[in-house]
Design goal:
Blueprint (H helix, E strand, L loop, with lengths): L28 E5 L7 E7 L2 E9 L1 H11 L3 E5 L13 H9 L9 H6 L4 H14 L6 E5 L1 H9 L7 H12 L10 H17 L3 E4 L2 E4 L4
Parallel strand pairs: 1-4, 4-5, 5-7
Antiparallel strand pairs: 1-2, 2-3, 6-7
Length: 217
């Protein structure tokens, strides 16, 4: 799906009631699920308790254009923002997530990542981090891990199918505007966006580079 810089998104309207007694303003959060070159990126735009838009099969330039159009406070990316130190097979933050929240795939050092096609999705994510860093000066970009978010919000998956577990978790969140059918990448993009929202409210903790919800949204 190709998105141009003139993409029209359904933002909250000025006539919507203000929140918490503050003057009305638009606040958006974007979550990105990262794939390899063929799959591309999935993006979710969230405003408060509303899913504004879902996008799929995006290229890096498409994501940058969506971010520029939406003007979010925070973009959360489901992909490592750095590789492990040279000669190591994982990052400390990943080991911390594995100990205290849920299982996670390890990110090895840069030499291994760039030499093995299996890690193509990590390379694509690193390219996106770099592209966003060259964009809006006040944009905060964080690394998230949706499986950890779903676990904090909905409890451990245990033996449930991942698809059923995340569908149940998404339904329990009560987010407005979610389509009747979503795929796993879309749900993870939504989880990333909601984690970004929680982060802006101070309701997350950091495990190395990875931002994890501290409580349910």
């Amino acid at each position: 799906m190709r998105i141009t810089s003139k993409v029209a998104l359904r933002w909250a309207r000025p006539e919507d009631p203000p929140h918490d007694g503050h003057a009305w303003f638009v606040t958006n959060w974007i979550g990105i699920d990262v794939g390899g070159r063929r799959k591309g990126f999935d993006a979710a735009v969230v405003h408060d308790d509303r899913l504004v838009e879902l996008y799929g099969r995006l290229g890096c330039t498409d994501v940058v254009e969506i971010v520029e159009a939406a003007g979010p406070r925070i973009v959360a990316i489901d992909s490592p923002r750095v590789c492990a130190p040279a000669g190591q097979r994982s990052r400390e933050g990943e080991r911390q997530v594995a100990r205290s929240v849920c299982g996670i795939r390890w990110t090895p050092d840069a030499q291994t990542v760039h030499a093995n096609p299996y890690y193509e999705w990590i390379v694509e994510g690193l390219v996106l981090y770099d592209a966003l860093a060259r964009g809006q000066a006040n944009l905060e970009v964080i690394e998230v891990f949706p499986t950890a978010s779903w676990t904090r919000w909905h409890g451990p998956r245990n033996k449930r199918r991942r698809s059923a577990w995340t569908r149940e978790g998404l339904h329990a969140l009560g987010l407005v505007g979610v389509p009747s059918r979503t795929n796993q990448d879309q749900r993870d993009g939504i989880a990333a966006a909601l984690t970004a929202e929680q982060h802006s409210l101070g309701r997350t903790e950091r495990m190395g580079d990875i931002v994890v919800p501290a409580i349910a949204p």
